[in-house]
Design a protein that fits this description.
GO terms for molecular function: acyltransferase activity, transferring groups other than amino-acyl groups. The protein contains six helices and eight strands, in the order E-E-H-H-H-E-E-E-H-E-H-E-E-H. With 198 residues, it is of the alpha+beta class.
Length: 198
């Protein structure tokens, strides 16, 4: 991992990828990635039916990096003409300095390849480095794929009558279950910790 945070690695299927923080010049690619999402994927991410165009305010919010309050990362396939495969962010939770809230987008054709688990490990380590104690992700109850993945990655889930909220304790790797997803997460955490935590 170099000083910018950028590094190269390989997905479980052997695909070589580049992983790096988002930068302002990524605005057109981020907008295009949003446009390429299926309506179902956009609904699961934003919880409302939207069109193919993402607003400038959302793009600015995602692209503005602040290591203390918000970070965004992307996974890129350098062999493709349109390289983005997925991205993820965390935001410091208002009024709860020890907690961050996470969000993910993985393009439809790139799901189930381990991209989300890699991004989860990066969010975990960067949030821990920023002093967070817990990490929380929210999903709609009908999004069973995301809910099952978060549970398999060791998060504790609660239902509030509308959404499912999943929480990880960032200093408790012993709580990870014996699942394939958790083993993959633990592997990424072990591999990436020296470069991110220093």
């Amino acid at each position: 991992m170099n000083g910018s945070g950028r590094f190269e690695t390989i997905l479980r299927d052997g695909t070589p990828i580049i992983v790096r923080p988002l930068v302002p010049d990524d605005r057109p690619a981020l907008a295009e990635a949003y446009r390429r999402l299926s309506p179902e994927a956009r609904y699961n991410r934003f919880w409302t039916h939207t069109g193919e165009v993402v607003g400038d305010n959302m793009l600015t919010r995602v692209l503005h990096q602040d290591p203390a309050t918000h970070v965004s990362w992307a996974v890129l396939d350098p062999t493709r003409e349109f390289s983005p495969m997925g991205g993820a962010s965390w935001w410091r939770t208002a009024g709860q300095p020890g907690e961050v809230e996470i969000s993910f987008i993985v393009l439809d054709d790139d799901q189930r390849r381990g991209i989300g688990t890699l991004l989860l490990a990066i969010l975990w380590l960067t949030a821990f480095r920023a002093g967070a104690e817990t990490m929380t992700g929210h999903v709609l109850t009908e999004n069973r794929q995301a809910a099952g993945w978060m549970r398999d990655c060791g998060a504790r889930g609660e239902w509030d009558g509308y959404k499912l909220s999943f929480r990880w304790d960032l200093d408790n790797l012993d709580a990870l279950p014996e699942t394939r997803a958790a083993a993959e997460l633990a592997g990424w955490l072990s591999r990436l910790a020296p470069g991110i935590l220093g």
